[in-house]
Amino acid sequence: MREEVVQSLKYLYDIYNTAPSSPSHYRYLVALEQHLNPSQPLPLIQVIHNFWPNIREAWSACSIRAARSLTSLKLDFKFTVSTDQQLRTIYSRHTRRLDRLEQLKPLSATTNIPIPALALRAAQLDLDKRSHLNWTKPELVILYSHRHLSKQKISNALKAQGYERSHQAMKIIKARSELLNSDKPSHYTLTPLSNLIGLDSHCLALWCKRGYLPFERKGTVRTKQQGGDSYLIKRTDLATFFRAHPEMIDFRKINQQWFIELLRETDPLLNQTENE
């Protein structure tokens, strides 16, 4: 069986004159060959791992030097500027392989280029990086404006604008944790806010329900027994509430340094003077 794998790898190299060291690039190459020549059996990456720890050592066993990229690969398909631009759009908006596949199907139908060849072209254009850190500027704008909401709501906001991002993306989690846990978060949930004000969180929830304190929902999935979806209080709305209802504040319990700083930074007259 091992010898059959070696022969298959040599066949693949003879056809395409490249030996991809990336497992995903190897899969693209195998998929393209199976599309063009279905009768030719080729080993899956899992089969290769039965004999070698990685694809690079498998090529080495064939006396072939592995290539880190596919830039030298010659594809006998006509790739236009429009096709390349459509590939860039698909790969920038869809990070998951399955999502990309669905978007590549209509492009393949209109261009008459097989999906594996489109994927290989994307690899040549350096588009197939799957890192969640590769965010576009429009995505970051959406992320920043929705950073106080739940991961699912952020994902939905991105999806509404045509961007596919898993709500588990670490970039979202990182951004939310950094911005919401900073010294000056844009929004507060009830528990940390209750610690700052010196009141029970149930009291704050009552203020919200009675309309004293403006709020929005975070979008977390919690049962009624868990208290339901979390309340989010905007920092500027909080300052407005304090100015309108000073009788609601117990100055013996509130964090006075935080309270003074909150009112100072949201004072329109003070900010106008500083800007002048």
What does this structure look like?
The chain is 55% helix and 3% strand. The protein has a three-stranded antiparallel β-sheet with strand order 1-3-2. The chain has 276 residues and is an all-alpha fold. Residues 272-276 have low confidence and may be disordered.
Order of helices and strands: HHHHHHHHHHEHHEEHHH
- The percentage helix is 55-70%
Residues in β-strands, percent: under 5%
Q: Mean pLDDT, rounded to whole units?
A: 81
Distance between the termini: 80 Å
Q: In total, how many domains does the architecture comprise?
A: 4
Total of DSSP H or I helical runs spanning 4+ residues: 15
Poorly predicted ranges: 272-276
Q: Rg to the nearest angstrom?
A: 28 Å
The coarse silhouette is elongated
- Biggest sheet, strands in spatial order? 1-3-2
The profile of the biggest β sheet is: 3 strands, antiparallel
Structural class: mainly alpha
Count of distinct strands = 3
